[in-house]
Predict the 3D structure of the following.
Amino acid sequence: MSERNIIVTNDDGVHARGLIAAYNSVKDLGNAVVVAPSVQRSGVGRSISIFDPIRVSTVDIGVCSAYSIRGTPTDAVIVGIYGIMKCVPDLLIAGFNVGENLSTESVTSSGTIGAALEAASNGVPSIAVSVQVTDQGEKFDDLRDDYRDYGAAVKIINRIASKVLNEGLPDGVEVLNVNFPHDFKENTEIAVTRLARKIYRTEVRERFDPRGRKYYWIDGGIIRDAEEGTDVNAVINEGKISITPLSLDSTATVESEQVRKLL
């Protein structure tokens, strides 16, 4: 059997320690190539740079040489597959993201999950990995100085990635969205979950700059009132590791006749 090709990316930037952990989780499973945004690109979802050239440079991240992309996580995936690796890899790991990516809100806004979805749309089984924070401000720190011990997460993701490489994902599943609670250990209970509807209360703060001009700041605290079986409840309320299977097909499961009535 030929060596497996694995692409590793994130949205926290190429120098984030979580990216090193992601690389360490799969480096013994095949040819792991790191391709990631040059700077923090959280919250960009699956956005793509179609109006600008994408510059690439190589940087030393301590454990390997990585490709630094002047673009989004989705750009990193596309350039990584078709410009650098020049083959469709056998697996993608996106993360380890500082900050939980839970609920339908995060699935559509997270750059980490956006990268995984982009890879999946190109036929690559993908795993997105995130870690809960207790202080939301930690998401915006300099993540080269990230203090977290990712050792247990590296071992768990290694086991999952090995299974996916050897056996594939279940039918109808294209991405595994894995979220660790902030105080996870290797023996922390794992729950297979579904997406909660929301994780944040949507708030807008109105403020004024020093010249008296109005601006708005989008904000909102975490919603803890989540249903049993959801990712938010598992991670936020129960302290479990959540694994949510995702599919690219967002078609609503409704009888077509119900839609025809609208026409």
Q: What stands out?
A: The longest helix spans residues 151-167. The longest strand covers residues 91-98. Residues 93 and 143 are 18 Å apart (CA to CA). Residues 5-196+227-260 form a domain with the Stationary-phase Survival Protein Sure Homolog; Chain: A, fold (CATH 3.40.1210.10).
